[in-house]
Design goal:
alpha+beta; 4-stranded antiparallel β-sheet; 8 strands
Length: about 425
């Protein structure tokens, strides 16, 4: 009897062979342009609902083929296999067009589903995780608020118990691709009479639930990647709660690990290979006739070195997380690296493209000048998203290096008392 992809006794080599055959029969190979654009902002663009919906059948086919949720438990729709099996599929599929949900896919599979696996009830996971793997549900994060960004524990969206349900009132902002999602993982305050970290609770909220108003935010780069949401008497059943009541900060710390880009996934053995030169820089140099320019070649080398450093750091973080479990402090290293160096890399790109990054032919909206300018405008995203650079440094200093915590007059005070004091704040503690 031959083992199949859904058989948890299948060897890695058998699984690899089946994945190779399935990919050949069911997926298109990537074009050279798509391979070059992968991982760069040239490969990112604003999706429409129609584009998202067109990807859902592809995800369902992947799920039905036994290649979605490879390491997730079988009882929740996954394959129950090892990280080595997942790595084998990743290696075999790198040249194929897989379902692409853009940022919504990263948030759904890489952040929200990981939180559900760690903290959701078995009933919650059975209802939602198979639908996620099949492409029927995409999730966003209802996380930051107008009054609580980096100070995440200060959220004020209120959840009030009403029998077997909860009633939500408040506002969220900077929710990535919420207008293309089906659900949001929502952080709320359920207890105002305890210190702010101890009165938080998470819920799964349908984006189209009665009482939810969603507005798209238009950005400086012309994109519409973020939304703001308003909750007016939104009723959510207690069955859609994630984690224990008032224990939401523990859940939030798990989410921060994944939001900061850290993954405890299996990595290839041996040293990290440097790979091809920074393809986006090489493309710009060639397009502008600067391939032989020593100054341009130096900029390409600097970008390539930085890209290699990112790969090495991610490998080390993955090893650390596999050994020690989810740790938001450790994950902060990766977020801080991108927060500090993404902008610097973008500046190098502007130096490479010179005047073409300031003015370009409007008939080439994805040409070297336009793409370089877009990268520059987006260069500060990771200095803020998922927590500012300053917050990442605090996490590393306090949670990894064991340095003293920053003084805080309100850490142990009931949150409602903190809010009352803030109304009369005069700068004195």
């Amino acid at each position: 009897m031959t083992a199949t992809a859904t058989d948890d006794t299948i060897s890695v080599d058998e699984f690899r062979a089946q994945a190779r055959a399935w990919l050949e029969a069911n997926c298109e190979r990537k074009t050279a342009e798509a391979i070059a654009a992968a991982g760069s902002l040239r490969g990112m663009h604003e999706f429409t609902k129609e584009q998202i919906d067109a990807e859902r059948p592809k995800q369902k086919r992947l799920y039905e083929g036994g290649f979605a949720g490879i390491t997730w438990p079988k009882e929740f729709g996954g394959q129950g296999l090892s990280g080595a099996h997942e790595l084998a599929f990743t290696e075999e599929s790198k040249d194929y067009e897989l379902p692409n949900f853009g940022i919504a896919g990263g948030t759904t599979f890489g952040v929200c589903a990981q939180v559900m696996l760690a903290h959701g009830s078995d009933d919650f996971k059975r209802r939602h995780l198979p639908r996620i793997l099949a492409g029927d549900e995409l999730w966003c994060q209802f996380f930051s608020e107008p009054v609580a960004g980096s100070d995440l524990a200060g959220v004020q969206t209120r959840a009030t118990r009403d029998g077997d349900s909860w009633v939500l009132n408040g506002a969220k902002v900077w929710s990535s691709w919420a207008h293309l999602a089906d659900y949001g993982l929502c952080l709320t305050r359920t207890n105002w009479s305890v210190p702010k970290h101890r009165g938080l609770t998470w819920f799964g909220v349908p984006v189209d639930a009665p009482g939810v108003t969603l507005r798209v935010i238009r950005l400086i780069n012309g994109g519409a990647d973020f939304c703001e949401e308003f909750f007016d008497d939104v009723v959510i059943p207690d069955a859609d709660r994630i984690g224990d009541v008032d224990d939401g900060w523990r859940v939030a710390r798990t989410m921060l690990v994944f939001e900061r880009g850290a993954r405890a996934e299996e990595k290839p053995k041996g040293p990290v290979e440097p790979g091809a030169l920074a393809t986006d820089f090489v493309d710009v140099a060639r397009a502008l006739g600067r391939s032989d320019d020593p100054e341009a070649r130096q900029l390409v080398a600097k970008a390539h070195t930085l890209d290699f450093m990112y790969q090495v750091l991610q490998r080390r973080l993955a090893t650390r997380l596999r050994q020690g479990g989810a740790d938001a402090g450790v994950a902060a290293y990766g977020a801080l690296a991108h927060g500090v160096f993404d902008h610097e890399r973008a500046v190098w790109g502007m130096e490479l493209a010179r005047g073409d990054s300031v003015a370009w032919d409007e008939s080439e909206p994805e040409g070297p000048g336009a793409s370089t300018a877009l990268t520059f405008l987006n260069g500060r995203i990771n200095s803020v998203a998922g927590g500012t650079d300053q917050m990442q440094r605090n996490a590393i200093g306090e949670q990894v290096l064991g340095l003293p915590r920053e003084p805080s007059w309100e850490r142990d005070k009931p949150f409602d008392e903190v809010l009352r004091a803030a109304q009369h704040w005069d700068g004195r503690v």
